[in-house]
Structures are given as structure tokens and as C-alpha cells.
Design brief:
Blueprint (H helix, E strand, L loop, with lengths): L7 E5 L4 H5 L2 H10 L4 E6 L4 H4 L7 E4 L8 H9 L5 E4 L4 H9 L4 E5 L3 H4 L4 E3 L10 H7 L12 H5 L15 H4 L4 E5 L11 H11 L5 E4 L3 H7 L9 E2 L6 H10 L2 E5 L2 H9 L2 E6 L7 H4 L6 E5 L13 H13 L2
Parallel strand pairs: 1-2, 1-4, 2-3, 4-5, 5-6, 7-8, 7-10, 8-9, 10-11, 11-12
Helix pairs in contact: 4-5, 10-15, 12-13
């Protein structure tokens, strides 16, 4: 096999939604280099709907179907693709071992751990934590193993998602989407990010909702219960616990903008090309240089310091002003 003309490439990223979103540009870059190749994506079942929105990916493999199975089952799943090349973006030990057992010819990934050192045919040595690069840039940096060394700007990355959302046909979001200008707020993060206080979200809703801006609030049922009565629900469309991931993706894509901390929905919004405002701590490695939203209309605000109480110190007026600017350009 010639490394410059693979027929089938496998990308492995078996972690969260935001991480998967920031891996999609790698698929776009691979399609640009190898337009005739097939690309399969190995991920967790709950990320399938995200991957389905990416035009660069031809097949989805569900790691959860074999995660608790034998090495033979895992090897068989990977071998079934016929892939000649695998990118271990998230080098889960079981996947690394299974890919080697499946005799995938080109196995690309970091070799900093023992289980990977002996199983990667193309070893990468850079540290993600200490690199100073964005997560999407780090994923694209894996192409250096194939001698593609060009750096990617934010603008280039935004063009590589290949992300398209489907229209909303019915459901809980229709009340929100019938409004001309609508913004989604996603206040919580399952503890994966430093959050903006709910009291600030409440103030934001009180300030912008009278200005012709329809607001939806999304989250899981558990998050909705945790929010309780801390938001003025009479001024928003309550979508907490009412949307599965496919419906959430569709709803975000149909909105004009979204505000959230560093979460999967924020990166969905940036990939979908709508206004996406991320709220961040400046602390490494969770700072915006590494995890900011990248998209055609993505932006972020960061607190001056990492909050000791775990809640971001970002002013309501600064967020409200961004939303008003979105509406003015609508």
C-alpha cells in the first residue's frame, strides 16, 4: 500500500461530544488529501448523531458494542472495515491493542505510553497538554506522520468540519424556533467545565428577552432538576430534558446563536456555523487557547482569573452586548 493513497482510513476517538466535534476537521483534511478514500469513525454510541452530521465520514463504528467484549471481538470490528490506516486520536489502550491485532498497516498515534510505543507504526511524540496548540490543531498535527506539515488557521479549520444539521420537523423546540431571532443558553456542563453562575444567566435572560430575542434553555433532565427555580422560566422556552442529542443538534443548527461554557453544545454550535459564545477560565489546560470554539461565527469571553469558587467571573453586560450585536447583524 502507498501511504499517499489509502482506500480506507479509520479515525478513533472514543470520548466526549466536544472532543469528537474537534476531531471532525481531521476527517475533512484527510478527504482533501485523499478524496477517493473511505473514512470510518470509531466512537461511543452517544456521539453517533454528531458524527452523522459530518459529510467527510462515510461509516460509524460503535465502540460500545465491543468495549466489554473480547480482544477477538474488538479486533474483528476494526478488521471488518478493511482500513489500511488508523489515527488513534484518543489512544485508548484496548483500541490500540485491537488495531495492532487486526494488522492495520499504518497505525498513527502518540507513543508516550508503553502500550502504544510497541504498537504504533508511525509514532508521535508531542504533548497535548504542554503544546500551546488548540485541540483541533493538535488533531490535525497528526497528519505530520504522513509528511503533511502545513499549519491550520482557525479559518481553515472552520471550513473543514463538513457539518450540516437537519431541519426540525416537530417537537419541543418548535415554540422557540418559530421566532425570528432565537438564542440557546446551555448553562450546565456535567462538571466538565467551569460554569457561569446561574444567577448571571438569570440576569442575562431578564436583560435581553424584552429586546425581541427568543431564548431557549437546554440541558439534560438531571441538569434541569439541578437548575430548579433559579431561572425566570416564564421568559424562556424550557427545553431541559426534552431533547435527545439528534434533536438538540437540529435545534442548535436552527438557532441564531448559543451561549455556554466549554461544552459539547458550544462546539456543535461553532461547527454548525451559528454564533457561538464560549465562557472560559484562563487556567491551563482548560483555557480558551486549547478549547475555544472554532467556527465561522465563534467567539469567547474569559474571566480575568480562575475562579476560586468554581464560577466564572464574566459580566452579564459583556455577554448581553455580544447577543445584541448578533441581532443587529441579523
Amino acid at each position: 500500500m502507498q501511504e499517499n493513497s489509502p482506500k480506507h482510513i479509520l479515525i478513533s476517538r472514543t470520548d466526549g461530544i466536544g472532543d469528537v466535534i474537534l476531531t471532525l476537521p481531521l476527517a475533512g483534511a484527510l478527504k482533501a488529501h485523499f478524496p477517493d478514500c473511505q473514512i470510518s469513525f470509531l466512537g461511543r454510541s452517544y456521539t453517533k448523531d454528531v458524527v452523522a452530521c459530518c459529510s467527510h465520514i462515510d461509516h460509524f463504528l460503535n465502540w460500545d458494542e465491543v468495549a466489554e467484549g473480547s480482544l477477538f471481538d474488538q479486533m474483528k470490528l476494526l478488521k471488518s472495515t478493511g482500513a489500511e490506516m488508523i489515527f488513534h486520536v484518543f489512544p485508548r489502550k484496548q483500541v490500540v491493542v485491537a488495531a495492532a491485532a487486526a494488522k492495520i498497516s499504518v497505525r498513527i498515534g502518540t507513543a508516550r505510553r508503553m502500550h502504544a510505543f510497541f504498537r504504533m507504526t508511525h509514532k508521535l511524540w508531542y504533548s497535548r497538554k504542554d503544546s500551546g496548540l488548540h485541540e483541533a490543531q493538535l488533531n490535525l498535527k497528526m497528519l505530520e506522520a504522513l509528511k503533511f506539515n502545513e499549519p491550520y488557521s482557525d479559518e481553515q479549520i472552520a471550513d473543514l468540519y463538513g457539518f450540516t444539521t437537519k431541519p426540525i420537523m416537530n417537537g419541543a423546540a418548535l415554540e422557540l424556533l418559530q421566532n425570528p431571532f432565537k438564542v440557546m443558553l446551555h448553562p450546565m456542563s456535567h462538571g466538565s467545565a467551569v460554569e457561569w453562575p446561574l444567577s448571571r444567566y438569570a440576569q442575562l435572560i431578564e436583560e435581553v428577552s424584552p429586546q425581541g430575542i427568543a431564548i431557549g434553555v437546554s440541558g439534560t433532565e438531571r441538569e434541569r432538576n439541578a437548575i430548579g427555580n433559579q431561572l425566570p422560566w416564564d421568559k424562556v422556552v424550557d427545553l431541559g430534558g426534552k431533547l435527545n442529542l439528534d434533536q438538540l443538534i437540529r435545534t442548535i443548527g436552527a438557532c441564531n446563536g448559543l451561549v455556554a461554557a466549554s461544552t459539547g453544545p458550544l462546539h456543535i454550535a461553532s461547527a454548525a456555523g451559528i454564533h457561538a459564545l464560549g465562557l472560559y477560565s484562563p487556567k491551563r489546560p482548560i483555557h480558551p487557547l486549547r478549547w475555544k470554539p472554532i467556527g465561522k461565527q465563534a467567539e469567547y469571553l474569559a474571566s480575568a482569573e480562575h475562579p476560586e469558587d468554581g464560577k466564572l467571573e464574566i459580566q452579564v453586560e459583556d455577554v448581553a452586548e455580544r447577543i445584541r450585536e448578533w441581532k443587529a447583524s441579523f
